[in-house]
């Protein structure tokens, strides 16, 4: 007569933690001798548990990535706002320079070209003559590459009210 091995429910043979932690080789070694249908059930249970773990990890990773992207989005929004404020400030400065340029054109049209000197760089106090006029290009120090038009200081003060 053939001896029957008592069939135990799969949960009693190996618990879920052991089922997931064993390597495939170790699991097969432990399942040796059990009925085929019980082995299939245990292996299916192992696959189900592993898939649950993978899904949980994926959800956690997705939530973490979403939070990270939200933080980055907030940082970028703040940077855009900061750049918009800086852009507005630069536009105001440009508009102010444009107004001053137009005033200088208006002043120079009335005072004549003999009062105008074209400079190859910024004007310093050392560049002025004793009567607050600007010497010719050969007499001035080279302070930088900026070019501009300067008018006798007292005329600019009168017209612009600075």
The CATH level-2 architecture of the largest domain is identified as Up-down Bundle
Main β-sheet: number of strands, strand sense, barrel status?
2 strands, antiparallel
Distance between the ends: 119 Å
Number of helices: 5
Query: What is the string of helix and strand elements?
Result: HHHHEEH
Beta-strand segment tally: 2
Residues in helices, as a percent range: 55-70%
Specify the overall morphology.
rod-shaped
Main-sheet strand order equals 1-2
- Bin the strand percentage: under 5%
Q: Measured on Cα atoms, how large is the radius of gyration?
A: 43 Å
The CATH topology of the largest domain is what? Single alpha-helices involved in coiled-coils or other helix-helix interfaces
Structure description:
The chain is mainly α and 162 residues long. It has a two-stranded antiparallel sheet. It has helices at 10-13, 16-21, 24-31, 36-111, 153-160, and strands at 116-119, 148-151.
Topology:
Layout: H1 10-13, H2 16-21, H3 24-31, H4 36-111, E1 116-119, E2 148-151, H5 153-160
Antiparallel strand pairs: 1-2
Helix pairs in contact: 4-5
GO molecular function, one term: DNA binding
Protein name: BZIP domain-containing protein
Subcellular location: Nucleus
Name the descriptors:
Transcription_factor_Maf_fam, 162 residues, TF_DNA-bd_sf, mainly alpha, two-stranded antiparallel sheet, bZIP, 2 strands, 63% helix
Report a brief summary of the structure.
With 162 residues, the protein is mainly α.
């Amino acid at each position: 007569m053939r001896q029957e091995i008592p069939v135990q429910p799969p949960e009693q043979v190996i618990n879920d933690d052991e089922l997931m932690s064993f390597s495939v080789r170790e699991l097969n070694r432990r399942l040796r001798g059990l009925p085929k249908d019980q082995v299939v059930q245990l292996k299916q249970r192992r696959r189900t548990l592993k898939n649950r773990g993978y899904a949980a990890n994926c959800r956690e990773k997705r939530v973490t990535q979403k939070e990270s992207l939200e933080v980055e989005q907030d940082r970028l929004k703040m940077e855009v706002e900061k750049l918009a404020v800086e852009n507005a400030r630069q536009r105001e400065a440009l508009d102010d320079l444009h107004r001053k340029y137009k005033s200088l054109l208006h002043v120079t049209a009335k005072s004549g070209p003999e009062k105008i000197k074209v400079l190859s760089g910024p004007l310093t106090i050392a560049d002025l003559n004793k009567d607050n006029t600007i010497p010719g290009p050969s007499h001035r120090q080279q302070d930088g590459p900026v070019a501009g038009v300067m008018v006798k200081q007292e005329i600019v003060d009168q017209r612009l009210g600075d």
